[in-house]
Design goal:
The complex is a heterodimer of chains A (about 70) and B (about 240). By secondary structure, chain A is mainly alpha-helical. Helix content of chain A is about 55%, strand content about 10%. The radius of gyration of chain A is 11 Å and the shape is globular. Chain B has four helices and twelve strands; from the N terminus they run αβββββββββββααβα. In chain B, helix 2 (about 125-160) runs antiparallel to helix 3 and helix 3 packs antiparallel against helix 4 (about 215-240). Classes of the chains: A mainly alpha (about 70), B alpha+beta (about 240).
Chain lengths: ~70, ~240
């Protein structure tokens, strides 16, 4: 879960990140656990802006059963 | 496209096309030429048919455009000692020449052919037989009661605002299968009832044929099944929408 990694690097809490992105902590949790079906470009942009990183830093492709992209 | 949705839609199309073809084939040699101001009155029936209570509809079918060749009427009440009532379709085994319809337009008469007869048969006459018929009729009520419960649950869910949920889809699919099951059960029960009636009741010059239950039970059942698959698809879209962050 690269969001967690980036959050740790930036020493940012879930609550603070959620507030900066403008989503609820519940939705941030959905993103972190990989349950989200899709992510808006605006949300991704907000995450990158809040964590000062590139989309590639938080997105990672995993070849599991049901191919999916996790954050 | 969902596999079940494909199957149900195909079945519905087959049933509808089959019904249309069947109706067209059935009616192709007949045409009604009854005039709007024409009133047909029925002559008295012979004693074996009992008293005629009411004639709800008089439908005139013709062959080769001539009204006086074949005429049909529907819904006669036949009374014995009324304790048990059942409406059965009948088919003449030869022309009943002693019954006539008279037209007020040109005074012409035509032969009467009964299509359905409402029998009121005393229970004491072969009581076991009619208890069986009664029990079979009650059997038909069970799927309907189940269907009623399902419909009430669906209505309650809709009032709560839960429309695109798996539960409603499953209930609608069950309701659809219940209607199909009811159609099958109605055919089986109808066949048994007719067999019993044939052995118990004799109508002079007429047979009691077996008629299939209305095909619209299957049509409505398939529509409910298709609706259930559409709701499932809607639920997927809703989930996707809700899980887009």
């Amino acid at each position: 879960m690269n969001v967690d990694v980036m959050m740790a690097k930036r020493k940012m809490s879930s609550q603070e990140l959620a507030e900066r992105i403008g989503i609820t902590q519940a939705n941030l949790s959905i993103l972190k656990t990989g349950k989200a079906k899709a992510i808006r470009f605006s949300t991704l942009e907000a995450i990158c802006k809040a964590l000062d990183c590139q989309p590639g830093d938080v997105l990672e492709y995993q070849d599991t059963e049901g191919t999916e992209i996790s954050l | 496209m969902n596999k079940k949705l494909k199957i149900y839609s195909t079945l519905l199309a087959i049933v509808l096309v089959g019904t249309v073809i069947s109706n067209t084939f059935h009616r192709e040699n007949y045409s009604s030429i009854m005039r709007e101001d024409e009133v047909l009155t029925l002559d008295s029936l012979t004693e074996e048919f009992g008293k005629v209570d009411n004639v709800t509809t008089v439908q005139v079918d013709t062959v080769d455009g001539k009204r006086d060749i074949v005429c049909t009427t529907t819904s006669y009440d036949v009374q014995f000692k009324p304790t048990f009532e059942v409406t059965v379709p009948v088919r003449p085994n030869h022309a009943a020449t002693d019954k006539f319809l008279y037209s007020n337009v040109d005074g012409q008469s035509c032969m009467v052919e009964m299509q359905k007869v409402k029998l009121k048969v005393p229970m004491e006459k072969g009581s076991n037989t009619f208890k069986i018929i009664f029990a079979l009729t009650i059997c038909l009520l069970l799927p309907f009661l189940w269907l009623l419960v399902i419909i009430l649950k669906v209505i309650r869910s809709v009032y709560k605002g839960e429309i695109f949920v798996t539960q409603i889809a499953k209930r609608l699919e069950t309701a659809g299968w219940l209607l199909v099951a009811f159609w099958l059960l109605a055919n089986v029960v109808g066949y048994i009832q007719i067999q019993i009636l044939r052995k118990t009741v004799m109508i002079a010059y007429y047979n009691i044929p077996w008629e299939s239950a209305s095909i619209y039970y299957i049509v409505f059942g398939l529509v409910l099944m298709i609706l259930s698959q559409i709701i499932l698809k809607g639920k997927d879209l809703k989930d996707e929408q809700e899980l887009t962050i």
